[in-house]
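In response to a reviewer's request, we include the raw inputs and outputs for one of the modeled complexes. The two entities were modeled together in a single run.
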Amino acid sequence: MYIDPHIHMVSRTTDDYQRMALAGCVAITEPAFWPGYDRSSPEGFQDYFRQLTDFEPKRAAQYGIRHHTWLCINPKEAEDPVFAREVIALIPQFLDCPSVLGIGEIGLNKNSRNEMEILEAHLELAASRDLMVLVHTPHLEDKLKGTRLIMDAIKNQAKLDPSRVLIDHVEEHTVGIVLERGFWAGMTLYPDTKCTPQRAVDIFEMHGTERLWMNSAGDWGQSDPLAVPKAQLEMRARGHDEAAVRKVSFENPLAFLSQSGRFKVS
Amino acid sequence: MAHAPTPLSKRALIDRSYLEHRAKVLDLASFLDRIDRASGEGADDFRMLAFESCCALLIDGQPNRAQRILELLSDHSTEPIARAGTKGATGAVPPSSGGAR
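The model returned the following structure tokens for the whole complex.
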């Protein structure tokens, strides 16, 4: 049994839901993200948020998987602050939907000033509504710098409790600084650009299993919706017991997400 | 499982994963050979210079190689950039960015 706490099912087929259910997935959370192209109007996000809050939970339920979501404008579309603020203004009308857990995945992509402005606007919304936050950290060479900038921005919002913020896509050079500052940390299992299942298990062995989870972040790019069960296999092959496997792939995401008061497993 | 080293012994880990990583070493070698055989510019590409530095870290005998390689490939500047000119990342720090260590 496992939870995939970060996966973009709008980009996946219904067959993937079936395969995930067969592999033991009982619940997922889906952050709002960039579809591979910039949307031409804020109304495009209105439709996207409807898809996340209405259509996708029904599709998942057909396979016994509970679907939850996080809403935002992803940092990859945040370079135009006027456009981004129009999208942020749409979010409150969806916050009462029972499957909405909070704001995410917000953060930085290229660590620009405009991205910082929109990150701060999202954080203000989360703080004003006492919402949980799921954070995207930048890719590759931009990750270390972006992770530091993001953590500083969150710390500037006194109302945001780090224990209700998860900073995702950590790797060996960022996991320590995230955990030291009291945040939860997520490891994304990607074939090339983030952690492999083997490296994720290495990180558990080096940093322990408190406030740490793993996810597939499966989307329209190279990614694997079965990455979490593959990491479970890696743990078992290395001799870790079932209690450890269950903690990192079920109990930890359950503990973090349950703080929302809305997260449920089937 | 707080800070639990792998339950497998060194020998068991090698037995389990040697062939997988032998293949990866050959992939690296053949990648470098392929670039050597190719024509045109690129031998001094900043990504390949960073790649060579990463290879040196692999055999320096010191621990935390993965973390140190990721740090070597990271932008170490501290201020936001004026504007995002692209959405993508290259995997190493362009010399023009001023963020290389």
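As requested, we also summarize the result in words. Chain B has a mean pLDDT of 93. Chain B touches chain A at residues 1-8, 16, 64, 66-67, 70-71, 73-78, 80-93, 99 (CB under 8 Å).
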